[in-house]
C-alpha cells in the first residue's frame, strides 16, 4: 500500500483545524488564527511522523492524550483548571461526534453482500475493519458531520439560554389566582406614561371568563377604548373588574400609536427553581388578544423591572 505522507499531513491539518474551530464555537472562544494553526499543525505533524520514524510508545494512549492536551493548550490557553478541563472535554466531544459521523456515513453508503465482509480476524483474536473512503467523499462526510454537530449544539445552547428566561408566575386579583409560564423579555420597556408603572403582557384568553363576553377575541381586531365604552356599570360582577382596567398607549412596530387594555392586579409573584419568589405589587398586565407562543410554551411576558425587584417584595403598592 502506498501512503502519501504529504496528503496525510494536509488532510489531518484540515480536519484538526475544523475540529478546533468547532470546539471554539461550542465553547464561545475566539482564539487567534495563529494559535489555531499552530495546534492543528502539531496534530497533523503527529499523524504524519508515524510514517517516517518508528518510536516505541509514541502512539500509546498516554502519548495521544498528551498531544491532545498540547493542542488544546495552544489553541485556548490555560485559563485555570476548570476552564482547561472544559475545553479539553469539548475538544474530545467534537472529535468523537464528527469522526463517528464520518464513519457512520461511510458504512451507510457502502454496499456489501454480507455484514461480515470487510472484517478480518487477527491471530490474537482481534478484529480489523476495512475502512476506505475517497478523499472527496471524506471531505463531504466531514463537512456534513461538523454541520450536524454544530447545528445540534447551537440549538441546544439556544434552548438552554431560553429556559433561563422562563419564570413561573402567579397573578392574584381579588380572590382569584392564576399560575402560568412566562418569558422574561429584556427588551420590553413598556410603562404606563403617567405613573411609570411597568407593564407586562399576558394572553387575554387567560381571563376569558372574567372579562365581558367576547372581549378576549375582539381584542385582536378592535380598539380597547371602544370595548370599555360598552361596560355596563349595572353589572356588578363585570364592573368589579372594570374598575381595574386601564388604557396604556404604546407604539407598534410600524410606528403607529395604539392603545392596550391593561388590568391592575393585586400581586404578581415570580419564581424560578429554588430561588425565593419575587413579589411585584406595582405592575400592570397588558392583555394581548392573540397567542404569545406558537408552541404554547408561555402565556405571559415579564417586564425586566419585575425580575430586578427585591426577592421578598417589591416597592409598596401604589395607586395607578
Q: If you had to describe this structure to a student in words, what would you say it looks like?
A:
It is a single chain. With 320 residues, the protein is of the alpha+beta class. It has two domains: 5-163, no CATH class; 166-307, Cathepsin D, subunit A, domain 1 (Beta Barrel), CATH 2.40.70. Helix content is 42%, strand content 18%. α1 (5-27) crosses α4 (81-109), α2 (33-49) runs antiparallel to α3 and α3 crosses α4. The termini are far apart.
**Uncertain regions spanning at least 5 consecutive residues:** 313-320
Question: How large, in whole angstroms, is the Cα Rg?
Answer: 31 Å
Provide the β-strand percentage band. 15-25%
- Give the termini separation: 85 Å
Q: What class would the helix/strand composition place it in?
A: alpha+beta
User: Based on DSSP secondary structure assignment, what is the total number of beta strands?
Assistant: 11
Q: In sequence order, what are the helices and strands, one letter per element?
A: HHHHEEHEEEHHHEEEEEEH
Envelope shape: elongated
Number of contiguous helices: 9
**How many structural units, i.e. domains?**
2
User: What is the residue-mean pLDDT, rounded to a whole number?
Assistant: 76
Helical residue percent band: 40-55%
Which sheet architecture does the biggest sheet show?
A: 9 strands, mixed
In order across it, which strands form the biggest sheet? 6-7-10-5-11-4-3-8-9
Amino acid at each position: 500500500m502506498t501512503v502519501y505522507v504529504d496528503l496525510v499531513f494536509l488532510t489531518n491539518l484540515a480536519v484538526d483545524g475544523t475540529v478546533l474551530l468547532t470546539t471554539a464555537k461550542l465553547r464561545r472562544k475566539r482564539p487567534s488564527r495563529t494559535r489555531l494553526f499552530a495546534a492543528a499543525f502539531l496534530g497533523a505533524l503527529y499523524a504524519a511522523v508515524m510514517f517516517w520514524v518508528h518510536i516505541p510508545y509514541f502512539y500509546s494512549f498516554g502519548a495521544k492524550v498528551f498531544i491532545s492536551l498540547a493542542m488544546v493548550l495552544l489553541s485556548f490557553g490555560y485559563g485555570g483548571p476548570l476552564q482547561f478541563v472544559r475545553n479539553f472535554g469539548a475538544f474530545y466531544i467534537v472529535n468523537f461526534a464528527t469522526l463517528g459521523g464520518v464513519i457512520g456515513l461511510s458504512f451507510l453508503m457502502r454496499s456489501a453482500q454480507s455484514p461480515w465482509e470487510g472484517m478480518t480476524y487477527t491471530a490474537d483474536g482481534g478484529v480489523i475493519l476495512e475502512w476506505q473512503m475517497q478523499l472527496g467523499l471524506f471531505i463531504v462526510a466531514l463537512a456534513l458531520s461538523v454541520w450536524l454537530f454544530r447545528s445540534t449544539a447551537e440549538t441546544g445552547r439556544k434552548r438552554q439560554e431560553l429556559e433561563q428566561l422562563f419564570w413561573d408566575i402567579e397573578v392574584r386579583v381579588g380572590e382569584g389566582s392564576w399560575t402560568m409560564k412566562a418569558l422574561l423579555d429584556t427588551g420590553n420597556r413598556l410603562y404606563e406614561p403617567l405613573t411609570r408603572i411597568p407593564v407586562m403582557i399576558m394572553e387575554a384568553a387567560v381571563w376569558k371568563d372574567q372579562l365581558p363576553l367576547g372581549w378576549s377575541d375582539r381584542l385582536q381586531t378592535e380598539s380597547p377604548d371602544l370595548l370599555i365604552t360598552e361596560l355596563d356599570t349595572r353589572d356588578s360582577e363585570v364592573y368589579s373588574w372594570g374598575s381595574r382596567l386601564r388604557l396604556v398607549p404604546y407604539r407598534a412596530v410600524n410606528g403607529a400609536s395604539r392603545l392596550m387594555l391593561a388590568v391592575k392586579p393585586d400581586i404578581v409573584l415570580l419564581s424560578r427553581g429554588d430561588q425565593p419568589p419575587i413579589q411585584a405589587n406595582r405592575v400592570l398586565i397588558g392583555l394581548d388578544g392573540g397567542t404569545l407562543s406558537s408552541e404554547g410554551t408561555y402565556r405571559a411576558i415579564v417586564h425586566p423591572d419585575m425580575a430586578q425587584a427585591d426577592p421578598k417584595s417589591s416597592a409598596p403598592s401604589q395607586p395607578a
